[in-house]
Amino acid sequence: MRVPMSWLRAMIDLPEGTTTTQVAEVITEHTADVERVESIGGEVSGPVVVGKVVSAEPKLQKNGKTIVWCRVDVGAELNAQGHPKNADGAELGRGIICGAHNFGVGDLVVVSLPGAVLPGGFEISARHTYGHTSDGMICAADELGIGTDHTGIIVLPDTFDGRTPVPGEDARPILGIPEDVLEIDVTPDIGYCMSIRGIAREVAQVLGLHFHDPYTEAPAQPVSGPVAVRIESPACSQFVALPVTGLDPQATTPGYIADRITRAGMRPISLAVDVTNYVMIESGQPLHSYDRQRVQGALVVRKALAGEHLRTLDDAERELDPDDLVIADDSGAIGLAGVMGGASTEMTEDSRDIILEGHTSTAPRWPAPTDVTSWARRPHGASSAASTRCAPTPRWCGRLSCSPSSAAERSGNRPSSATSPRCRRRGSPPTCRAASWACRSPARRSSRFSRPPRSR
């Protein structure tokens, strides 16, 4: 489990001056081993600043490659320190060659100037290339060690902390670097710690700090939504479905969401997928997105039929076991519950209407493994980040009803005209108060977190 410290600090009021090492010691002593601390962007040094693209001139080269000759404003003082060969127009900004094309005039970018050192000991200096003197480098995420994307350079938001970034200012605070990330070995008996929320509660409990819970755990109100749901197996105790319409397939994931899930060890994919992964990492509750236009009829939670097959999102054809819990529609199984979705209802670049889904599974008395974790170990080999987090205990059900709504709000899109989630509990009528039985008093909820230090 990877825990970015900024995400952890957002949930607990750590005293000023508390170091990452001190937090790691608390977690190791009372919860689980912190195996290592990684510093994201810690190798970056020297002048790495905000730049504003003043001009961008594409130039086709003899080798067929098109580069962009740019003037980038990095503030009057740094502009004046530019290379003499670029003196003509130096008042506008530094002259820089860039091979990316995902930016334009007026965009704010990250510029490493001569004297900066990037991860791997890569020193930035002015150099003559493609007929120009490139006096710095416009950076991509992987070049700064803060991500793996090299499809384009980083384009900064127009505002940061309610203000407009100024050319020449240090770009590192805007990028949130350097940042420490804890790598924690979470054992199966404390599965609730497979979330930022779970780790934050542990630290807050041990240190006697206030815990800012971003999930209310309030039961859902009676609803009558447009998504029909049936629960036909006792292995599922509750199912929530929320239709979201008007999704913009071209919309980009907000930067803070992409940064956080990247630092937590997941790759940004698309807005809908990134939002569900964000909620899963933060809360521990797995969610899944279906393309609503590809779902046929009601969503049904049931055990797999003998000989039933499912092609999962990893493009693997899997023969299901009759003990596997699946999400199905009129066409058959469309997902392996709590593990992985099916290819037939996968989100595509054209998906505009989706169904966000979350559920809880029943299980034998703790700490026996849940049905979901045992399904992930079946011969078909399906396993995922979700299968390690699927929480079966009632305490999670209240949050289940608010997680899809939270996801919709974070995505910048809107739920359909039926604004509440469609909630069903096994044996309940179609319209019900979901998970009212899951509410726990603070005293009872915290008792599991009040235990003596682990023996070493």
Automatic annotation (TrEMBL):
<dbReference type="InterPro" id="IPR012340">
    <property type="entry name" value="NA-bd_OB-fold"/>
</dbReference>
<protein>
    <submittedName>
        <fullName>Phenylalanine--tRNA ligase beta subunit</fullName>
        <ecNumber>6.1.1.20</ecNumber>
    </submittedName>
</protein>
<dbReference type="InterPro" id="IPR033714">
    <property type="entry name" value="tRNA_bind_bactPheRS"/>
</dbReference>
<dbReference type="Pfam" id="PF03483">
    <property type="entry name" value="B3_4"/>
</dbReference>
<keyword id="KW-0694">RNA-binding</keyword>
<keyword id="KW-0436">Ligase</keyword>
<feature type="compositionally biased region" description="Polar residues">
    <location>
        <begin position="402"/>
        <end position="420"/>
    </location>
</feature>
<dbReference type="InterPro" id="IPR005146">
    <property type="entry name" value="B3/B4_tRNA-bd"/>
</dbReference>
<dbReference type="GO" id="GO:0004826">
    <property type="term" value="F:phenylalanine-tRNA ligase activity"/>
</dbReference>
<keyword id="KW-0820">tRNA-binding</keyword>
<feature type="region of interest" description="Disordered">
    <location>
        <begin position="401"/>
        <end position="456"/>
    </location>
</feature>
<feature type="compositionally biased region" description="Basic residues">
    <location>
        <begin position="442"/>
        <end position="456"/>
    </location>
</feature>
<dbReference type="InterPro" id="IPR020825">
    <property type="entry name" value="Phe-tRNA_synthase-like_B3/B4"/>
</dbReference>
<dbReference type="GO" id="GO:0000049">
    <property type="term" value="F:tRNA binding"/>
</dbReference>
<feature type="domain" description="TRNA-binding">
    <location>
        <begin position="42"/>
        <end position="172"/>
    </location>
</feature>
<dbReference type="InterPro" id="IPR002547">
    <property type="entry name" value="tRNA-bd_dom"/>
</dbReference>
